[in-house]
Amino acid sequence: MIQSMTAFARAQGQGSWGSAVCEVRSINHRYLELVVRLPDNLYGLEAHVRERMRHYAKRGKVECLLRYQPGGVAGTEITVNTGLAQKICEANKSIANLLEHAAPVSTMDVLQWPGVLQIAEVDLAIIEKEILQLLEKSLQELVETRLREGEELKQLFLQRLDSMKAEVAKVRQHLPEILNAQRDSLRKRFADIKIEFDSSRLEQEMVLYAQKIDVTEELDRLDAHISEVRRVLKHGGVVGRRLDFLMQELNREANTLGAKSVDTDTTRASVELKVLIEQVREQVQNVE
To answer: Residue 213: how many CA atoms within 13 Å on its side-chain side?
Structure first.
């Protein structure tokens, strides 16, 4: 199956270890780009988070945002550095004696001083398993969403490929008529200007002209590229770049078909093919 590169997933959990919310989103990108945003007290998990993200995504810009609120079991007890607080109070008294109208210092003023209020570091060993399980859940949901959208894109591609195949078949069917029409047109021109011509010489010229306007090779390559796109879609996996290359090749053949065209039906088919190819190419940019 193929995957879209656009998706969003969210998972949340809570327990004695605390509570957390994990959001993962992805958009199209030429390569794999990972963006990880973790709380300051969880930076130690960044390497594990990136490893899991690389396991689930091979291409696209993938962002992970993790919000965490510690619980009692995670070792987040709050303590007061009474020694530092006492020194701050003593310093405050010394400065207050130098001032005539010193403003009183509140308890919160002392607690807000750096280092007075101390929060124990989060014990990653306790919460690592829970956080990574939450990440795993959100990544699995992300992939499921990408697969669903990828399946919708696949159906769109197959519909456009069917239309391309029909246009190629129409041109191939009309090739003999086109050549006969050109032969009759050339004879009419000779008749209009009253020039006698050698029938064998005319046939030689028509053979050369037919080779010049022959689009059989372009039609064969269009059929081959269409078949290859179908094969790639059936095989699945990381196929975005390959599909993009095949769209370029299809567009090249459609342009050559238009350049060699000597009738309106072939020209119209060339234009229709380019429209269909462009519709697929735009969506291919979003395939992993």
So the answer is: 21
CATH number for region 7-71+125-147: 3.30.230
* Domain residue ranges in the chain: 7-71+125-147, 78-119, 150-284
**pTM for the full predicted model:** 0.71
Q: Are 41 and 275 in contact (CB under 8 A)?
A: no
Per-residue pLDDT of the chain (288 residues; tens, 9 = 90+): 899 999 999 999 888 778 899 999 999 998 999 999 998 878 888 999 999 999 999 999 999 999 988 776 555 566 777 887 888 888 877 877 777 777 777 778 777 778 776 665 566 777 888 889 999 999 999 999 999 999 999 999 999 999 999 999 988 888 777 666 666 666 666 556 555 555 665 566 555 555 555 778 888 999 999 999 999 999 988 999 999 999 999 999 999 988 887 778 888 999 999 999 999 999 999 999
Instruction: Tell me if 202 sits within 8 A of 187, measured CB to CB.
Output: yes
CATH topology of domain 150-284: Butyryl-CoA Dehydrogenase, subunit A; domain 3 (1.20.140)
